[in-house]
Amino acid sequence: xxxxxxxxxxxxxxxxxxxxxxxxxxxxxxxxxxxxxxxxxxxxxxxxxxxxxxxxxxxxxxxxxxxxxxxxxxxxxxxxxxxxxxxxxxxxxxxxxxxxxxxxxxxxxxxxxxxxxxxxxxxxxxxxx
Length: 129
Hints:
Layout: H1 7-28, E1 38-44, E2 51-58, H2 69-79, H3 93-128
Antiparallel strand pairs: 1-2
Helix pairs in contact: 1-2, 1-3
């Protein structure tokens, strides 16, 4: 995929969706004793274009390497990292809310590529008709 065909935007939207699920899991478990929040770490996409999920890891932990991004997200959402009984949740709601807003804006910016592409194609089709 080249930058002009929307591949980078699709990759970014998939990575942002994974991050959204992890942040939602952090917020949902804010009152869960022993819950340790997770973060999605991004890397350059294939061929240096776009972005991909590099790792999903607990806050302040070393990044796991060599696993499928979807598997990592599903595992952390299902099990939750670092749970120990009797410890309060380590989720910082103010950080999560800011990250959710940034994620929302990033997703909207990538979605605008497809809205603009649709508008341009409609204009070209109208010219041909």
